[in-house]
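ok so for the tutorial part 2 we go from a plain amino acid sequence to predicted C-alpha cells. step 1 is just haveing the sequence, like this:
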Amino acid sequence: MRNELTHDVFRAFARVHVLHHAAEGWIFGLEMIEELRRHGYRLSPGTLYPLLHGLEQAGCLRASKKVVNGRLRKYYRATPAGRRLLARLRARLRELAEEVLQRRTRPSRASSRARTRS
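step 2 — the prediction. this is what the C-alpha cells look like for a chain of 118 residues:
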C-alpha cells in the first residue's frame, strides 16, 4: 500500500511538472523523461506517454507531429485550459507547501479541532 500511494503522489507531481513545461513551450516525450530524471523522477516511456495522452484527452495539452531525423516526433503544448489548470494547481501547491513545510510553533487548527473532539 505504501509504495502504491507514493507512486500515485509522484505521478501526480510528474503531471504538474509536465504541464508546467508544456506551458513554457513545446515538449516531447524523451525530453520530458530526461527533464523529470534530473528532478529525481524515474518514469519509463510506458508511464510518461500515457500521462501525456491523458493530459491531451483531458484538453490540457495539444499535440503537433513533426519529422525529426527521418522519424515522426509528437510535440505537446499546454492549451488555454491547461494553463488555467496549472494556475489553479500552482495556487493550491503554494498553499499546501506553506502549510506542510512551515515549522509550526503552535498547533494547527486541524489538530486543535481533533483535540476538542476527543
